[in-house]
Amino acid sequence: MRVRLGASGPVRQVRFEEYVQGAVLSEFSPGTAPPEVASRMLQLQAIVARTYAIAHLGRHAREGFDLCATTHCQLYAPPRGAASRWSAAASTAARHTASAVLWFGTSPASAVYHADCGGHTSAARDVWGGTAAHPYLVAIADEGAARTAHASWTFTARAGDLLAALNKDARTRVGRQLSAIAVVQRDAGGRAALVVLRGEREPLVRGEELRDVLNRAFGARAIRSTRFSLAREGNSFVFSGAGYGHGVGLCQAGALARLRAGAGPEQVLAQYYPGTRLVRLR
Ligand SMILES: [Zn+2]
Ligand SMILES: [Zn+2]
Predict the structure, then answer these.
(1) What residues are neighbours of ligand 2 (ion), with CB under 5 Å?
(2) What's the pTM value of the predicted model, to 2 decimals?
(3) Which of 16, 121, 177, 242 has the largest count of CB atoms under 10 Å?
């Protein structure tokens, strides 16, 4: 089986397991983890990348390919040659877990993941809305071995810069002034689910939409997650948050901490996708 990969440039055809291996290397770097822990994390990532690809194959069918190579689907930009000291390990991990996929009911699971949940994951419905039932994408306190794995952040922006960024998108347009940004609803994971922007207009937006709009202006490392609180300091707004990414499904920081503490890939997957099971496809 081959995956038709699109994005910029011509559509590429990549062998499925080669795609899995490349996606693993694009989405995760074991960093300073001991080789034995890194190998288990790469196995876990291979199962997740394979499951995600199978569940979303054909997402871009109308554009003439299966998956795009950006974070919209799954990043596929594997480092080349000597730049990738992990490529042999990723290849071993893909082979070791070949055809293993997470399943829920009668379908492959929507195995979404993110870098750091900040201490608590959120339900898919609370972050993205919609009515799709994913009973395994629920809010989970990421404690135990994962308790100290999470990082916090702050981001400060001048009101004028925020105003300009918000006015660039119809969903967040406030008009000529911005007087306040207030979280009106938090989800069970502590994320800002609904935020009201107060100005000439007072749009109510999902926290994840606000993050998307602001990060287009300030970069992906600005509002790292919607697990934030806000304070006004003079002419600036200060976001103080924890975690990095949307916060749904598997938390890579927590998963790595659990593996370091001795857990196996299957145990960790069961933790973040409760109710799913691991099957081997023929
Ligand atoms: Zn895509
Ligand atoms: Zn976590």
Answers:
(1) 117, 142, 251, 254
(2) 0.92
(3) 121
